[in-house]
């Protein structure tokens, strides 16, 4: 009898603890809020653009689980811009010629949308048709550059998505 009484007492004392644990878990799930999307930076600040592009890419990952390749060209007024543009152009061309494995995401973005589009178009001109099937390409820029980037990348077999920087 003493054993039965003790077990009942332990069970009764454990119930409030169990209920408290369950109550603490529920609000955490309910209050998890999704942050609002960032908007295109009004300035050419590299940090603001980095945060904006990271946010856009993260929201457009889809089924991609690998780390994305993000190519960024700073604003033309940035010190050393011409060198940065030339290095980025060479880096993108080499990467695209080597090829990107299926299931990866490549994202391009810049405050200089037309110049970034030129880099993408030039790099994909050297890519073999169909060689990048299953690769996601995300271009973040001005609507005026969308069609020419799309025309340049689609022959490679990529899944192209355009996001207007706004």
Give your account of this protein's structure:
With 166 residues, this protein is an alpha/beta fold. It folds into 2 domains: 1-33; 46-164, Rossmann fold, CATH 3.40.50. It contains 5 helices and 4 strands. The chain has helices spanning 2-30, 46-59, 81-98, 113-124, 143-153, and strands at residues 69-72, 105-109, 136-141, 159-164. Strands 1-2-3-4 form a 4-stranded parallel sheet, sandwiched between helices. Helix 4 (113-124) packs parallel to helix 5. It is globular and about 40 Å long. 26% of the residues are buried.
End-to-end C-alpha gap:
74 Å
Q: What is the string of helix and strand elements?
A: HHEHEHEHE
Helix content: 40-55%
* Overall domain count: 2
Number of helices: 5
Oligomeric composition of the shown chains: single chain
The CATH topology of the largest domain: Rossmann fold
Given this structure, which CATH class of the largest domain is correct?
Answer: Alpha Beta
Low-confidence residue ranges: 1-32
